[in-house]
Design goal:
55% of the residues lie in helices and 12% in strands. With 283 residues, the protein is α+β, with helices and mostly antiparallel strands.
């Protein structure tokens, strides 16, 4: 089985798991190293398959103002599924965090046929959404780099084994370098998907496998983080410039998704310009 087939098999299993849990899925997409071409599957390193899913509330949940779903499910094999209500996810897209925006560009996603025509608008206009606020994207890149630097030697339970082995977490270092590549390519106007795929894949994979000593890694991480921050500060504009088209696309797609779901919940069928409403609570 080829790499792509193996990845999609796991993505499908994540999707099926959510269906069994009763979620109304709009689409589920892979997040992480596979989207960057930096996934590794060997005896030295094994990349996880993690996904994000956009789901819809029921009409009842909406009317009674129930808290929109926003949770992370951890599977038995420690893979993660971030499950987010469409309202939460679309607001997160507006914040321009690459960990979320990348799902619009992933080659590994499953879309609910019921909503495929609506969501295709989202994917067709992914570049507009990825450029809603360039300043915010630059801030996110610099912020993520700083977070990874703080995590470089922090003994979190999930990476304490790496800290003990290398003195640092090589994965955090590779993220710091990746953020530096991304912020520069994004600002030059390269397509977002091209920005996601670093030109230094071989080098970054070796970094992720821990080829540097603790001292070398520390110096490189600090230097790169400072460079990313300096690049952000040099290029950010005084006022944020908002791409309203990207926001309008998100709002329209969200409206259309909720409208279709709620009509189905209420038993509304369209006949030309007329509706036949059959409320389930009337006799």
């Amino acid at each position: 089985m080829h790499r792509e087939e193996k990845i999609m098999k796991r993505v499908q299993e994540h999707h099926d798991y959510l269906l069994q849990k009763g979620y109304e899925i709009v689409f589920l997409a892979l997040q992480g190293s596979q989207n960057y071409g930096l996934d590794v599957y060997d005896e030295d390193y094994m990349s996880d398959i993690d996904t994000k899913a956009v789901v819809l509330p029921s009409f009842e949940d909406f009317v009674y103002n129930k808290q929109p779903i926003n949770k992370t499910l951890v599977l038995d094999n420690n893979e993660h599924i971030d499950v987010k209500d469409v309202r939460v996810m679309f607001e997160t897209y507006k914040k321009q965090n690459v960990n979320f925006v990348e799902t619009l560009f992933s080659d590994f996603r499953i879309v609910n046929e019921k909503y495929k025509d609506i969501t295709q608008v989202l994917f067709d206009n992914a570049e507009e959404i990825a450029h809603i606020n360039i300043n915010q994207t630059l801030r996110c890149m610099a912020g993520m780099s700083k977070e990874k630097l703080k995590a470089l030697k922090h003994p979190y339970p999930t990476i304490v084994d790496k800290i003990e082995k290398y003195g640092y977490d090589p994965k955090q270092l590779h993220h710091i370098l990746r953020m530096n590549d991304f912020i520069k390519e994004y600002f030059t106007g390269l397509p977002y998907k091209q920005c996601l795929n670093s030109q230094r894949k071989g080098y970054l994979i070796q970094i992720k496998k821990g080829i540097l000593t603790e001292e070398e890694a520390t110096i490189l991480a600090e230097k790169t983080d400072l460079d990313t921050k300096a690049f952000m500060q040099r290029n950010i504009t005084e006022k944020d410039i908002i791409n309203q088209k990207g926001i309008d696309i998100l709002d329209k797609v969200k409206f259309d998704l909720l409208e279709r779901k709620f009509k189905e919940d209420l038993g509304v069928k369209q006949y030309g310009n007329f509706c036949n409403i059959r409320p389930t609570f009337w006799t």
